[in-house]
Amino acid sequence: PAFTDYQAESAAVSQGVVESNHAGYTGTGFVNYDNVIGSYVQFTVSVPAAGMYPLALRYANGTTVDRPMDITVNGAPAAPGVSFPGTGGWPTWVDRTVTASLTAGTNTIRAAATTSNGGPNLDRLRVTAPSDGQPPSA
Ligand code: GCU
């Protein structure tokens, strides 16, 4: 496939809760990060080959204040301080895409809040095939 989706409500969550009270999510819900530094969602992603993969985090932020997060891959910084600005409302979901190096096989991708507001509400991670045409999942 051209991409593979990983639902936040199926990922590992530290300091957050799965909810479904704001419309527009995919799957069965989304993760509401606790409003603390360090709250995170961690996805386990499998790809067939090493490469630079676009990672689209679908989120909502109903406030007017940015909720930055550090994106780490296999425990190492991949995209620090990624901005997740307000989307206009909690039911308004948008993709925030970063590109990161993944290794062949299993990778852990963590999105961790860096401010006391916690992260935005997180719906899913979409891993897209790299531009060289490698499929994102076996
Ligand atoms: C509201 C909203 C939640 C959101 C929270 C927050 O309570 O309903 O979905 O997560 O604000 O500010 O983090």
From TrEMBL:
Domain of life: Bacteria
Residue span, CBM6 domain: 4-128
The name this protein goes by in its record: PQQ-dependent sugar dehydrogenase
Coiled coil regions in record: none
Annotated source species: Dactylosporangium fulvum
